[in-house]
Amino acid sequence: MPGAVDTGAMSETPWTPEQLAEARARLLRYSGLEADDALLREALAKDPEVAAELEHGYAEVFGLRDAVSQVLTGADWPAAGALEPIAEAALARGVPFRPVAERVALSADELEELRATLLDRYDVVISDALALETFRSEPDVYADYEDCDRALAYDTALRETFIGVVAERLVGRSWPIYADSKEAVQAFYAKLEEAVQPGYFDLNPAPDALVRRAARRRQRGDFPGALELLEQVLVEEPEHRGARLQRAYVRFAQEDYEVALRELEALALDHPEFMPMVRLRGLTLAELGRRDEAIACLQRFVDHLEPPPDPDGRVVRRRLIGMSRGALDEIKAKLAELRGG
User: Fold this and answer.
1) Does 295 map to a domain?
2) What is the largest CA-CA distance in the chain?
3) Do 129 and 189 sit in the same domain of this protein?
4) CB 195 within 8 A of CB 187
5) Based on the domain organization, do 115 and 93 belong to the same domain?
6) Tally of structural domains, the chain
7) Among candidate residues 102, 118, 133, the one where a domain is terminated
8) Cα–chain-centroid distance for residue 175?
9) 55 found inside a domain
10) Which of 45, 234, 265, 300 lies at a CB distance of 3.0 to 4.6 Å from 11, suitable for a disulfide?
């Protein structure tokens, strides 16, 4: 058949010592098997694609691992935690085998890097034990880590993989992405809070992180829970503007508009140019029927994000952190409603 690979001939391919050494090293790193040349040759004969890759200087490690497993057990490499058939076959053949999970070891600096990554990007705190258990439960992730010369601080893809594994262990699903629905994201964070075990896994207690958690609780309708977190912040930092704004948001969501307005007017005295406060104050005034004041506030917000055209007729949009284009359009619609009323 045209293009067919003669696997019998390929088994006799005179692999160079360098090629076999590269395949052996990668197999050891990702499987824990110390294969001899005879086992490697048998495996390469079973998988022409892996053999062809090795001829070009690179052995695709998972295909190679499956091929070796086929020689030893007659099946592909088993899922993590089900390695008894491999261990028995390796022992019978005299091939040293030490599963990757058993060699997981991280220095204090490496553990600190993992913790810092999660804390900085995701507001979560993990113990050394959880970091090690995570790698042991996903040996391929640890092998990737070793394969990258342990440059975890500089390898975004590997870092994200580790974070995804932690999320799976704690919540049972991957970390939310932009395509997830608002309800799915809220459900994820609710489960994440339930997973807290002090000393093992916790959520960042820093003020800004607590405010973000309070905002998520508010969005899913847990107003008492949101206020509880905000009070923790305000006890330590009474003037924390984010916490004060979120407390006003909670009051607004509870339709306690008078209390919300008092919160916002106090905040306005200290931070008159704080645009999220200006926006919420305008919406609150509208709910209280104070139409002219609401229009003035909301127009000020729109003018800040979308100033009048410059002399050349261009409109320059400003970006306000936490405010999407949709939020600006929402306020414009509210202004039109108020002016038409």
Assistant:
1) yes
2) 88
3) yes
4) no
5) no
6) 3
7) 102
8) 5
9) yes
10) 45
**pLDDT tens per residue, range 303-316:** 888 766 666 655 55
Task: Report residue 96 as tokens.
Answer: 């040293």
- Structure tokens of 310? 């410059």
Lowest mean pLDDT among 15-19, 52-56, 129-133: 52-56
Residue 162, pLDDT above cutoff 60: yes
Q: Which domain holds residue 321?
A: 273-341
Confidence band of 227 (pLDDT split at 50, 70, 90) = very high
Q: What is the pLDDT of residue 21?
A: 87
* 77-86, 173-182, 305-314: least confident range: 305-314
Instruction: Name which of 144, 139, 3, 16 is nearest 83 in CA terms.
Output: 139
